[in-house]
Design a protein that fits this description.
Layout (H helix, E strand, L loop, with lengths): L3 H13 L4 E17 L2 E19 L2 E7 L4 H12 L14 E3 L17 H18 L3 E19 L3 E20 L2 E7 L2 E2 L3 H5 L3 H16 L2 E2 L3 E7 L6 H6 L6 H4 L21 E4 L20 E6 L2 E2 L6 H7 L7 E2 L8 E2 L3 E4 L6 H6 L3 E13 L5 E13 L2 E7 L2 E5 H7 E4 L4 E9 L2 E9 L2 E9 L3
Helix pairs in contact: 1-2, 3-5
Length: 461
Amino acid sequence: MLNSQTAKDVIDYALIRGADFAELFVDKQTFETFAMKSSQIDDVSSGINFGIGVRLIYGTKVLYGYTNSTKKEDLIDIVKSLSAKDMRDPINTMTSFDYMKYDDRHAVSNGLLNNVDLDKKIPFLLEIDKHTRAVSDKIQQVTAGVSQYLQEVEIYNSEGLQTSDTRNHIRLRAGTIAKDGSIQDSGSYSPGAMMGWDYINAMDPKTISEEIAREAITKLTAEACPAGNMPVVIDNGFGGVIFHEACGHLLETTSVAKKASVFHDKLGEMIASSVVSAVDDGTLENYWGSINIDDEGMPAEKTQLIKDGKLTSFMVDRLGSMKTGYERTGSGRRESYKYAPTSRMRNTYIEAGDSKIEDMIGSVENGLYCKKMGGGSVSPGTGEFNFAAQECYLIENGKVSTAVKGATLIGSGPKSLKEISMVGDNLDFAAGVCGSVSGGVLVTVGQPAIKVDNILVGGGK
């Protein structure tokens, strides 16, 4: 996409102007999206976004700009503008590029480079519509859509790195609304993977339909959730969003380097219950948040964040490493060429334990079972959170009983980690998009079921 000689000339120029480090991130993103609403195809769109990000580092100061042009003079103009106030005598010199090709861990068939015709994809969405409406006459609306992405990147830097990567992603979003009199509620399902159309094609539309309809109809009759401190069992999969938001961000050097994280000085200390181990892993085959290389050109790796309750590592990008002294972990990520990279999560999850969810529920006399979590808000510095639960049930005398709605989990990540007394053996994952200073990146959250002995539940009564 970018001539390597052009890249070398631009980086040479940045070093002549005294930059300690210079990098070019060449980014081409192709997308296709189609969606269904009211039993017919509602939207079809596709397009290409292309640009080049230019990053200069002087000491630990980052200067960043971007352009849609591949012309050398335009890239040099960006370097000239960025370095105008920081220009100094050159310290570093450029070495020749050494092209590095890394193994592709994530084999893909039917990605956008060898795309399946749209008329062969659309029937899948129509099947979801048909089967969902057949579940109950309470179903009022069904929506579904598929988004498919192809990102092609090239990375050049002043240390002589030249590398490239191709990334395919696909995501299904299906939802329904059920209504009974004046009451209505919803059900949803939105898996994603680092794959092509074969990922969706392997799914059963009827199973998806039955699940989103079941959720919506169950919530129609849910009672108001009682409020107060109580034990809570949070099920697997998207339940991991709480760890991601309330704890994961506190382990990124984005916050650690600024001492804006309560964990910045806790490496090697117990920060969680001894039953808790947690990982951020970019290598999981074909997972939504996986990468071959990060957006600084470093190979992905598995990073053990917490082991048996002890903090063992942070997620570290280049700048974070320079500021903290910790080794990089292949965690430098960005949404596109419009953003400078910083430390971000990939596939972040609590590892499986050995407890059965039935035993967790059986150990609770009166509490709450959160089958499915929703979104919420978090204070970045402290990890204090407020998360809505999408599907919840009371636990009474060790058994799941009445469906309830309006439940909100309120607490702090650091405190809640120490309140986890049981970790299940049913590890599962869910796809998401995480927003931070380097834009929205694709991430996986995950966990087995966990039992939190005491957490504040906000409710409707």
